[in-house]
Amino acid sequence: MGTKxxxxxxxxxxxxxxxxxxxxxxxxxxTKADERAGAVTEAEAGADVAEESDTAGDDxxxxxxxxxxxxxxxxxxxxxxxxxxxxxxxxxxxxxxxxRETLVGQLRTASNAGVAQQIKEVYGDAWHTTALWAGLFALxxxxxxxxxxxxxxxxxxxRSQAPWIKSVAWAGVALGVIGLLLAVLKYSDALLGLxxxx
Length: 198
Prior knowledge:
Radius of gyration: 45 Å
Number of helices: 5
Oligomer: single chain
């Protein structure tokens, strides 16, 4: 009977040791499984962050492609319209050049010159100088406006030009054409020619 008790006690202690060993193995397996799950979760989170950053980068690239360009083009369009307006009124350069031509005509003309000669030297040449400067401003406005309108064809593909830039550039082109036409008519004496002396 004592043997049975000792055997039973020994068997019970061995069972307890085996149970403890199984529990320790189970705990180790659970810890390893938790670590693997944590690693998988971190990998998924990293993949999500990378995907979000790729999506954000794509969105920024799309916004950059859709964003109108145009500080330089806008400034050139405004300059074109301003040059067109200057071509219509002559500007101060045309006025100064005309006054200078009048003075030169007065110095060149003799006091005993005929009326037709005096009119041509004093007023005619000044009128033609004004028309010439107006034509130069008109030509500059026309070229600048055309360059602004043609620029998107040679720029970055997919970039749109702001509508106001096109409108102002078209205004500069129109004013340039009108100013150039008026300058040619004035210079050729078809518009407001010199009075006849006969």
